[in-house]
Amino acid sequence: MSSRYPETFGALKRSEWGSPDRIRRSVKDELRSNLLSRLARGGPLFEGVVGYEDTVMPQIVNALLSRHNLILLGLRGQAKSRILRSLTTLLDEAMPIVAGSEVNDNPFAPISKYARNMIDECGEGTPIAWVERESRFVEKLATPDVTVADIIGDVDPIKAARGGHVLSDELTIHYGMLPRANRGIFALNELPDLAGKVQVSLFNIMQEGDVQIKGYPVRLPLDVLLCFTANPEDYTARGKIITPLKDRIGSEIQTHYPESVETGMAITEQEAWTERGGRPVRVPDFIAEVVERIAFEAREDKRIDKRSGVSQRMPISVMENIVSNAERRSLVTGESEIVPRIGDIYAALPAITGKIELEYEGELVGGHNIARELIRRAADATFHERTGGVNADDVIMWFDAGGALQVNDDVTSDAVVDGFRTVPGLLGLVEMTALAERSDAPVVAAACELILESLVARRKISRTDAGLYGRSQDEKRRRPYAD
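-> C-alpha cells emitted (483 positions)
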C-alpha cells in the first residue's frame, strides 16, 4: 500500500482517519455516505447493470440508505451476483486494520483478542495494514454441505498446541468467512440451499453479535453488510429461508428479466464476446433483434418451465455462437468480413436447448423442435415489427408452383444473393422494407433469409433442417399432383 497511508496506530490517530466521525462510522454508514455522494454527482449507480434504472436500482438505493441487510430475489440470469459485487464501488478506497488481524480489526475498536493484545503491547506503535475495497467483499455459494464452522469458525487444536492455549481461549479460533468479512460486505448466494442450523447461526450473530463455537461462547460484534440472493423456485424445490432469518433481512428486492427487446439487445451487446481480433465482425441489427426475441418468445412459451426462467445468458451465448459460425464460414469462403445470417442462428441450437427447462408437453415435442420454432417465431416478430408486414404473394406463389431454394451454410454472400435472385420479388421486398442496401451483399443475404423465415413461421413456405426452402406442407397436401 502507498506510503501516503499511516503505518502506525499513533500516526493513524493524528490523520484524517482518526477523526471522531471516521472512528464511529460503520460499514453501512460508509456505504450510505459514499452512495449519497454518488447520487449527488449523478450518472449510473453501477457500471454494466442495464435495465434496472427505474425498478431495482431505486429499491437498492433505499435499502442502502436505510442501512439494511438485503436479499435479491429473482430467477437465474438476472444480474443478482453482479449487483452485489458492484457494491464494493461504494466502499472507501482503503481501510486501516491492525496488521496481522484475521478479522479486519478496527484499531480504534478491536474485536479479536489478538488485536487487543497487540494494542496493549505496542500502544501507538501498533503496526497498521491497509485493505483495499476489492478485498472487503467475501462471497460464498450456499450448498447443503456448508457448515457453521465454514461460516462462523471453529476451534483449531493446532493453534492451541503451538501457542500453549486452552481450547476455550479465543486465540485458538480459526475464523470462518463471515468474521473475515468484518468491516466489509458478506454475500451469500442461493440462501435457501443453506441448512437450517447454519441459517440460525447467521441470524444470531446478525442480531446479538455472539455465537458458540464448540460449546464456548464467543462475542463477535461484527460490522458487516449482509447480502443474499435466492431463486423463487428454491423455496419449494430445495429448501427455504427460516422465518427468524428472513425477519432480520431489512429489504427484499425483486429482480426481473429485461422488460423490452431493446434493453435485452443492449445487455447482449455489452456482454457477448463478438470481437474476434481477426476479421471485422458486423452483426445486422435485425439479426441481433432476432437473437434477443428468442429469449422473449421462450419466456412466453407454455411448454417451457416459467419457474426455472430463461436466463439472459441465452441470447448472449446464441450471439457468440452465431458469430463463431459466421467466422468459420468467412475462413472457408475467404470473405474479409464476418456477417451472421439467419442460418447461423440455427447453428446455435446448442446454446438454446441447454438453457431451457421443459414442461411435460415440451418434453414430448423435444427441445430441438421447440428451439427451431422459437427461432422462426422470433424472426417473424422481428420482420413484422420492422416492416409492419408486406405483401409477399409473389414469393409464396413461386414456391407454391414448385420452386425450391437451397441455402448452403458455407458459400459466399454473393453466391447466396445470386440464388435469392431466382425468387421473384424477394430482393424487391428487401429494398422496399429498407432492411439492407442493395450493394451490401452480406446484409442483403441475411435480410432475404429473414423474410423467408417469417413466411416459414406463418406456414406459407417450408424449411428443412438442411436449409432447403420449398412449398409449404399445407400446399403439398392440397396439390399432391404438383410434386
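Residues 155 and 214 are 7 Å apart (CA to CA).
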